[in-house]
């Protein structure tokens, strides 16, 4: 057991998908895994372990934002020995070349959060994805013909911002989209020498206002989950 996860030792696989929404963890377990068993219900933050194409895989909700996601990722790594962690979530698009329903594979995560900065006084650490996981995810997405972008995302602490000028400015520097978890995941990957990756589907466009219907969101979520699972077992 760890502080926020009640699984017994050995109940969590060393490969895990991390959706923010615990009900999406349940959805993945029910739709993609065989023999899935729930190992966590503390705070309703559901976690399951099952098999995908014969490989043991877990899926764990993390909640929204870096403080919450960082807690789950760190406990999974430190207390349960998880070695490959793939976030599957949504993001708002920033780049004009990115559209709703596209996939973004976050190669790096710019962040305004002090969670990473505080660890490195005097430096701006560059949180980056694991190259092998990223390559596998890209390959799978290409094979399936999913529209996929690879590059920087912005990991923010604030969903509702009064002034988006500086956020929009990042679009001019190739930042593809905005989300709230990748930077801390990549930081923890570096800290504990484990493999981490964030894959996001675009749920809305921050600049054009383009949005998805809930049905469209469900379908693209499935594409992303497939990419995440295939990358993690490769
Ligand atoms: N920020 C802004 N828009 C979004 C986000 C976010 O974190 N996620 C989905 N749309």
TrEMBL record:
This is Purine nucleoside phosphorylase DeoD-type. NCBIfam families: deoD (TIGR00107), PRK05819.1 (NF004489). Phosphate binds at residues 20, 24, 43, 87-90. Homohexamer; trimer of homodimers. Keywords: Glycosyltransferase, Transferase. A purine D-ribonucleoside binds at residues 4, 179-181, 203-204. It is an enzyme of class 2 (transferase). Its EC number is 2.4.2.1. One of its GO terms (cellular component) is cytosol. Residues 16-222 form the Nucleoside phosphorylase domain. One of its GO terms (molecular function) is purine-nucleoside phosphorylase activity. GO terms for biological process: purine nucleoside catabolic process. The active site is at 204 (proton donor). The record marks 217 as: Important for catalytic activity. PANTHER family: FI09636P-RELATED (PTHR43691:SF11), URIDINE PHOSPHORYLASE (PTHR43691). Pfam families: PNP_UDP_1. It comes from the Bacteria. It catalyses: a purine D-ribonucleoside + phosphate = a purine nucleobase + alpha-D-ribose 1-phosphate; uridine + phosphate = alpha-D-ribose 1-phosphate + uracil; a purine 2'-deoxy-D-ribonucleoside + phosphate = a purine nucleobase + 2-deoxy-alpha-D-ribose 1-phosphate. Catalyzes the reversible phosphorolytic breakdown of the N-glycosidic bond in the beta-(deoxy)ribonucleoside molecules, with the formation of the corresponding free purine bases and pentose-1-phosphate. The lineage of its organism: Bacteria, Bacillati, Bacillota, Bacilli, Lactobacillales. Belongs to the PNP/UDP phosphorylase family. InterPro entries: DeoD-type, Nucleoside_phosphorylase_CS, Nucleoside_phosphorylase_d, Nucleoside_phosphorylase_sf.
């Amino acid at each position: 057991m760890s502080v926020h996860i009640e699984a017994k030792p050995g109940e969590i696989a060393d490969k895990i998908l991390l959706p923010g929404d615990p009900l999406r963890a349940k959805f993945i377990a029910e739709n993609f895994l065989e023999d899935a068993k729930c190992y966590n219900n503390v705070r309703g933050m559901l976690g399951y372990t099952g098999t995908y194409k014969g490989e043991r895989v877990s899926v764990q909700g993390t909640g929204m934002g870096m403080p919450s996601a960082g807690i789950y990722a760190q406990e999974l790594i430190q207390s349960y020995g998880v070695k490959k962690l793939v976030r599957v979530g949504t993001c708002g698009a920033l780049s004009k070349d990115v559209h709703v329903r596209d996939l973004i594979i976050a190669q790096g995560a710019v962040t305004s959060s002090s969670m990473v900065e505080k660890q490195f006084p005097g430096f701006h650490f560059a949180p980056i994805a694991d190259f092998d996981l990223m390559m596998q995810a890209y390959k799978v997405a290409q094979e399936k013909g999913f529209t996929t972008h690879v590059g920087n995302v912005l990991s923010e602490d604030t969903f509702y911002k009064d002034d988006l000028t500086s956020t929009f400015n990042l679009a001019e520097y190739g930042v593809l989209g905005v989300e709230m978890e990748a930077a801390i995941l990549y930081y923890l990957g570096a800290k504990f020498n484990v493999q981490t990756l964030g894959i996001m589907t675009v749920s809305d466009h921050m600049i054009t206002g383009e949005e998805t219907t809930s049905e469209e969101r469900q379908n693209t979520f499935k594409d992303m989950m497939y990419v995440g699972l295939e990358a993690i077992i490769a």
